[in-house]
Amino acid sequence: MSLDNEAIKKIANLARLQIEESDISGYAKNLSNILDLVEQMDSVNTDQVTPMAHPLDAVQRLRADEVTEQDQREHFQQHAPKTEDGLYLVPKVIE
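RESULT FIELD:
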């Protein structure tokens, strides 16, 4: 796919990019090359390829979901300006 200078100007405008007039042809060539590569990759038959969540096929080590700290809510709420029924009360900031 080949992009012309007008297409590059429209893309730059949509992306809110300011590019120099002298750089437009370089951008056109680079973006056209990228789109050609995407088109080439799109034509590859991937019917027999199993989708992967991650390219390294790694397994995440997980720890047991256990409580490791004691409940200190009462201690922390002693230092709070206002609490009610175990909740912190804060001033209203949105009307």
